[in-house]
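Students often ask why inverse folding is considered easier than folding. One informal answer: many sequences map to the same fold, so there is more than one right answer. In these notes we will look at a single instance of the problem. The structure comes first.
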């Protein structure tokens, strides 16, 4: 759980300096002083996600489990002075947690292994402030172990959140001592629970007993993760995924995954003796425009840095019984889905277990009803009834095959394209779904969907970026001829999927 005030957008990215000699290095690229406008745009279009970033984006829905001593004190932030004995979830059932999320369509969960209060949900050897001194299971329990086992059973991704801020640790504020402690705890989590698919940090940084704030050693933390869990995504204070900038669940109307990188990168790679460097994606991470042409043309480098959009199913991040009647409605969650996953992001939805160690019935009902709404809406792609024709390019029929691995691609020199859909009879729809093939980059800058009314083409809806997925809702239209026009693209556009749907 975070607030804007406690997030520090360091977002370091570990890269290999030798790679920058190449023009396109995968998920990062350097911009040379001699590069012309068209060179920069071409480079931006060719920056693409790493294997771990692509897997993460395809998850679409991930869940947070905020659980700990705060659950028993009915607080959002603990002060680290809590008696571990208060932690006693007598009916804890991690299988119920994971099963609930799996049935709701989620592909990965993240457990708050340690929040700001410093209480550890596993029996850490490096602190007494943990489950080993709780009443639960006579101090023999391990929540991390149970959640990891449930994830393995239900074949769902497993992640851990380890708060950098620790209000219990006596040496918090001493950078050297505390960073060693943090590495020890991180090593435990990454070594004893099987595969970890995501490691999640925020930037919360408080003042320690010595009156100082520690300087977090993110670079070494990242190296440790890459060593022990090389396939794990590191978010949101990390190199793989950034925070969208709000906890509302709503992403930007224009969301670029390719962002500018600042001069720290160039300074670091200038030292040829360095094998590994770190850099910070530049600029305001909470502005409405992070990656448009105006932002990247003066950049020193570019990096693939996609957005995670987080929100809690309740007003709070930890469970509070008085919020049982304030759970977000299925309709609200659907709106959030359109505004997160449908805006080139991944949704991280927090669902907090209660004092018994169970997901509450009110939360489960909302999740089931929301899942039903999604499944009902996207059950039938009306566009599959159409015959397709593209103004240029190849493989236009692949946009209806349900696979992100096949795609339409416009002719090499074209940055615009038109795809016509002709139906045997008028069809009615009110939702558009578009997906680019981001495995080769994000390109589309502007598009419009139109229908033919007599001899005239009229606008249904329009947008800017597509990225992994773009979802748009509009007033219901009935038409026999429809067309998608890509009005602007950084290179020849690619479309992996197109869908038209009708709300029930």
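Output (designed amino acids):
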């Amino acid at each position: 759980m975070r607030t804007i005030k406690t997030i520090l957008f360091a977002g370091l990215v570990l890269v290999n300096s030798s790679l920058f000699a190449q023009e396109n290095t995968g998920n990062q690229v350097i911009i040379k002083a001699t590069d012309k406008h068209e060179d920069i745009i071409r480079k931006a279009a060719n920056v693409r996600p790493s294997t771990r970033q692509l897997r993460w984006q395809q998850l679409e829905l991930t869940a947070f489990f905020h659980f700990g001593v705060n659950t028993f004190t009915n607080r959002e932030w603990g002060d680290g002075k809590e008696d571990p004995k208060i932690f006693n979830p007598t009916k804890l059932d991690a299988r119920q947690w994971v099963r609930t999320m799996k049935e709701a369509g989620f592909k990965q969960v993240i457990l708050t292994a340690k929040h700001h209060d410093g209480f550890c949900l596993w029996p850490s050897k490096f602190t007494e402030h943990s489950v080993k001194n709780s009443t639960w299971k006579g101090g023999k329990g391990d929540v991390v172990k149970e959640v990891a086992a449930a994830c393995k059973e239900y074949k769902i991704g497993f992640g851990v959140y380890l708060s950098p801020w620790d209000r219990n640790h006596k040496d918090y504020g001493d950078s050297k001592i505390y960073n060693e402690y943090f590495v020890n705890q991180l090593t435990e989590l990454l070594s004893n629970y099987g595969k970890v698919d995501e490691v999640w940090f925020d930037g919360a940084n408080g003042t320690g007993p010595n009156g100082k704030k520690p300087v977090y050693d993110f670079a070494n933390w990242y190296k440790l993760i890459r060593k022990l869990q090389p396939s794990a995504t590191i978010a949101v204070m990390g190199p793989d995924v950034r925070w969208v900038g709000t906890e509302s669940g709503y992403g930007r109307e224009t969301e670029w995954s390719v962002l500018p990188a600042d001069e720290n990168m160039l300074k670091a790679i200038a030292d040829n003796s360095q094998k590994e460097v770190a850099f910070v994606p530049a600029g305001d991470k909470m502005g409405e425009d992070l990656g448009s042409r105006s932002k990247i043309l003066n950049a020193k480098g570019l990096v693939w840095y996609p957005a995670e959009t987080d929100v809690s199913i309740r007003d709070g991040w930890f469970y509070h019984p008085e919020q049982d009647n304030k759970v977000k409605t299925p309709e609200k969650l659907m709106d959030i889905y359109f505004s997160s996953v449908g805006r080139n992001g991944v949704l991280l939805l927090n669902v907090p277990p209660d004092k018994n160690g169970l997901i509450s019935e009110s939360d489960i009902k909302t999740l089931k009803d929301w899942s039903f709404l999604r499944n009902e809406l996207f059950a039938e792609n009306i566009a599959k009834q159409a015959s397709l024709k593209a103004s240029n390019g190849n493989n236009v029929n692949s946009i209806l095959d349900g696979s992100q691995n096949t795609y339409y691609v416009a002719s090499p020199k074209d940055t615009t394209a038109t795809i016509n859909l002709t139906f045997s009879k008028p069809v009615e729809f009110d939702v558009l779904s578009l997906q680019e093939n981001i495995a080769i980059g994000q390109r589309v800058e502007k598009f419009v969907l139109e229908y033919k009314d007599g001899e005239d083409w009229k606008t249904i809806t329009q947008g800017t970026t597509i990225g992994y997925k773009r979802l748009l809702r509009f007033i219901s239209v009935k038409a026999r001829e429809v067309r998608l026009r890509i009005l602007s693209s950084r290179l020849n556009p690619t479309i992996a999927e197109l869908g038209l749907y009708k709300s029930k």
